């Protein structure tokens, strides 16, 4: 295992790679048509935003993380907003 992978794994296990100081935002939000809606953020980034309670990162370089939270709303877009109703 090379040094970069060891550093990524160490940060992952320490929880340092899973959040950033940014506020919650999402470019690819998907919501159900239920009331209240169940919304998820489908963004894949090297970190999860600070409002994410359940972040999942995959062992890859660069690190790929996604927020698994289900909310009743979509966060403000980070760049471009795509909202899809199922």
TrEMBL record:
GO CC, one annotated term: extracellular region
Record-annotated Bowman-Birk serine protease inhibitors family domain positions: 25-78
Alphabetized SUPFAM superfamilies for the sequence: Bowman-Birk inhibitor, BBI
Superkingdom per UniProt: Eukaryota
UniProt-listed InterPro entries: Bowman-Birk_prot_inh, Prot_inh_BBI
Residues annotated as signal peptide: 1-22
A Gene Ontology molecular function term of the record: serine-type endopeptidase inhibitor activity
Disulfide cross-links: 25-78, 26-41, 29-74, 31-39, 48-55, 52-67, 57-65
Sorted UniProt keywords: Disulfide bond, Protease inhibitor, Serine protease inhibitor, Signal
Gene3D superfamilies reported for this sequence: Cysteine Protease (Bromelain) Inhibitor, subunit H
Family: Belongs to the Bowman-Birk serine protease inhibitor family.
The protein, known as: Bowman birk trypsin inhibitor
Organism, as annotated: Medicago truncatula (Barrel medic)
């Amino acid at each position: 295992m090379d040094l970069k992978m060891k550093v990524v794994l160490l940060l992952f296990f320490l929880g340092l790679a899973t959040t950033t100081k940014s506020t919650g935002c999402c470019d690819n939000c998907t919501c159900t048509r239920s009331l209240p809606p169940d919304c998820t953020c489908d963004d894949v980034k090297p970190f999860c935003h600070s409002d994410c309670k359940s972040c999942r990162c995959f062992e890859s370089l660069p690190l790929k993380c996604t927020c698994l939270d289900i909310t009743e709303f979509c966060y403000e877009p980070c760049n471009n907003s795509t909202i899809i109703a199922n």
